[in-house]
Amino acid sequence: MATLATYFAVFAENFSATSLLISVSVLSSVFLLRKFSRSDKSCNPFKEDARRPPEPLVIDKDARNKVLKKGAAFSVEKVPSDLDAIVIGSGPGGLTTADILRKSGKHGAGSGAAWETRRLSHTFGLKGLQFDCGIHYVGKMEDSSTVRVLLDQITEGQLQWASLDDDYDVAVLGEPDQMRWVPIRCGRQQYKQELLQHFPGEEQAIEMFLKKTKEVADGADILGVLKILPLWLCKVLVKTGIVHVLNSFFRYMSRSTKEVLDELTDNAGLKTVFAHNFGDHGVLPSKSGFALQASLAEHFRDGGYYPVGGASEIAFHIIPVIKKAGGAVLCRAPVSQILIDNDGRATGVRVQDKKVGEVDIHAPVIVSATGVYNTYHNLLPTEVAQNTGLGDVLKAVSQSCSCLSVFVGLRGTKEELGLKAQNIWLFAGNDMERLQEEYSSLTPEEASEADPPVLFISFPSAKDPSWEQRCSPERSTCTILNFSIPPAWFERWNDECVKHRSDEYQHLKQAIGQHMWEQTCRLFPELQDKVEFIEVATSISNNHYINVSHGEIYGLEHCRTRCSAEMALKLRPETPVPGLFLTGQDIFLTGFVGSVFSGVFTAGAVLERYVIQDLWNLCKKIKDKKTQ
Fold first, then answer.
1. Side-chain-side CA neighbours of residue 138 (13 Å)
2. pLDDT tens digits along 572-626
3. Contact (CB, 8 A) for 551 and 538
4. DSSP string, 426-457
5. With respect to CATH, is domain 61-160+308-388+576-627 assigned 3.50.50.60?
6. Is residue 98 within 8 Å of 315, Cβ to Cβ?
7. Residue 297 and residue 214: Cα distance in Å, rounded?
8. Rg (CA), the chain
9. What are phi and psi of 609, to 5 degrees?
10. Is 59 helix (H, G, I), strand (E, B) or coil?
11. pLDDT tens sequence across 200-214
């Protein structure tokens, strides 16, 4: 994010004298608030560079389980006696919040407890191979980038990243006998030149797309501004329309991706390529705001990255940092309720312990990283939840898409199988919206005999340079995602026991999964006879393993309503319940980086400090030191 000072120039160009005077007054108050209201209320969590030389990768299972599983198993004895904060959920947002609180020197040095360490940033094992649940690639991990500096600080520099291939994504268009492979290359010039080879008459459209995505993404800071400034001031910015004059971000968020792309070109194939990675937020171009797709495009403009050692390395390196200062990260103890006292304040959580039953744990600050839906419907007492305003959010915005996942174990190394560190986005045709709608309208039985129209195909073992060291030098993995699955196809089996569901359920998911694998083999025929096993997970698998209700993988749906300036006022870290805060992708944006930055915003709200400014200052200090 840029500093707010840059917005004065925008005002001067777009406002009348009266409006300019009002705007300067408003923004002046912002600076006064930033300078005097919050800066001295807590310690700077990013005062010093916390990095240390990276230690060797830990591959010993017992050592890892001591941090992630058995060693983190809940017991009353492990809960610190002087808790000042409790974080429910251990996704990137929750862990980031807990870590920054620890680093702040306030709230018991960030002492806290995070329950339920099974989220999309973790991994699982199948027959000796490791698979990631949700992190397939991340952008903006270049040295000294803001997000890289942040992650280096909360992991003390222990989390390492490997860059994907130059063509980190490939869009594959068309029927099997007419497939066109369009590499998505990192770098603006490389991206443009590659697309011109496939769409030679579309130079103007490509240049305009690049111009618009940069313009919009450069203004995305305004969304963060609405998360950290006082709510009354944010309401002024939104209700007066000032927020729409600051830059074009929210103006383009109100326009659909499809609408903007239709203005750029009539070429259906090129429009599909422009929006090829819509699955990263899960909203079709007709429903997503162009600002969301533009920000995603710019997020990966310089390429993709993968955590060395797999997604579990994220929690593996954050947890010890939290514990080092007296905090605790505990799992296998579901939180059933947020406790509210007679004054309406959040004072603790009720935990279901297998050994002793219900246990109440108290702290003056409660942070829910479990999502708006879970917090509203499952954790807060009904009468309290109804007064939070979250019910209005859930009426206006549904949950995000689900997916059906196929995990494949393969015989052979990445060299033998020709696997690359990239993602494949397969489209059965250029009209992705129609194809998606037609497929989703099928009955489950019809779908079991049909090819899905859109697939995401990835080879995690080829992305991780540590794979041969920590897993198997002679085996590889493939992950395939199908975003066209209505949760209703599988919800009838939701109450059946996991791993003991009916034959009908098994047949349906295996049939759909087999079609997905056959489509993959049309692209990579050399994999056909290299299969060791195929495992299929559905929306109700998500319900069980990542604790969601409708198989959703991105929290609230990232439609235009959810991403609007008006909704940004409702999806903030603070809640109307004193002592209760929210974090995670629901209060910012989808994905790993969105979740991580939500943790920065939430920690700032808890600490009553502009933590993001502390982070920017450290980034500048690190960059200045590198140039010396």
1. 27
2. 999 999 999 999 999 999 999 999 999 999 999 999 999 999 999 999 999 998 8
3. yes
4. EESSS-HHHHHHHHHTS-HHHHTTS--SEEEE
5. yes
6. no
7. 9
8. 24
9. -150, 145
10. coil
11. 999 999 999 999 999
